[in-house]
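Exercise 4. Each item below gives a protein and its sequence. For each, produce the structure-token representation.

Item: Outer membrane protein assembly factor BamB (Microbulbifer aggregans).
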Amino acid sequence: MKAISRTLTRAVVVALAAAIAACASNDEKKEDTDPVELVDINATVELREVWSENIGDIDTKRYAMLQPAIGAGRIVAASSDGEVQALDRATGRRQWKVDLDVPISGGVGVGLNLAVVSDYRGRVVALDLNDGSELWSHQLTSEVVAAPAVGAGVVVVQSVDGKLVGLDATDGTERWSHSTTLPVLTLRGTAAPVITAGLVFAGLDNGKLIALDARDGIPRWEQRVAIPQGSAELERVVDIDGSPVVRGDLVFAASYQGRVVALSREDGRGLWARDASTHHSVAVGAGNVYLSDAGGSVYAYNVGSGQIVWSNNDLLRRELSGPAYFGDVLVVGDLEGYLHAIDPTTGQIIGREQIDGDPVRIPMVVDGDLLFALSDDGELVALRLERRQ
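Answer:
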């Protein structure tokens, strides 16, 4: 649990918010809360499976978001029961596997020849990316449920008690720490920090985005993405649980019950902001910023102006994953294990592939010509995009 706040899973928060807003009859409520049925599409692209491997249990009751990570031609994945393994990204052939004997809650961060995971007790473990041998571990003050960021000589971890901690990548000693006061009520989860150009970018549970110097943790700037609204604590939840996305001189972020924004990477100055509600990261590509909102709509915003280019409501209430820009299409996963390929220009669904019967809600990973998706059942699938003739 977070030290000074109460946490709710995303599903519970969304359901409670819907209940507060509901004013229709029982029949109307049922209709409004059922996931929409999928309809036939004119598929022009195919997400073709290259390989798949079950990596083990994912703890859905605790909303584990064990996103895999790519490094040195490997994809490293962790299961909730403590197993970490590296697979060849192209073939899926296992290169190494270790069992840490503790439930893993946050991972995986890859960089500087390290693969880093963490557990529910707040222990951060760094493994050698080449063979999986343990190099060091460090005990934090609270659990970690997001992937660490690795780069610029540090491993940066955000824990659920509102702390960002920078650990020396060579031995795990603490270099710096930054604390944030948490709201009374927050979503279950935290945003994974991002390291780029010597800066650490992190979304916070209070609706702010912060940039820190990776070397010493000194704040460079802090900007509010969302402003809490309403009198009820549930209405004032504005967590940023999706990782910031850095593209060129801009940083993009979005919050629950708040906004999606484009900020200057250098000083945090706002370029544009639009009302939005999501607990995922956005995606960027083809001149747009893409967002799947809490209700199941998908939006495209112009990168420069923030104007809505299109919206898609064909997947309402299907508990969408965050979007991934892959090749020249946008991909989102849903509660039945489907991946939907969307035309980034028109917003139309142009391809569909079911990779499992369980939800796909963990952030997908794009690496070159491959898309990696991990289901709640632990099915890790590598897919390639192909155009239909």
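Check: The first helix runs from residue 10 to 21.
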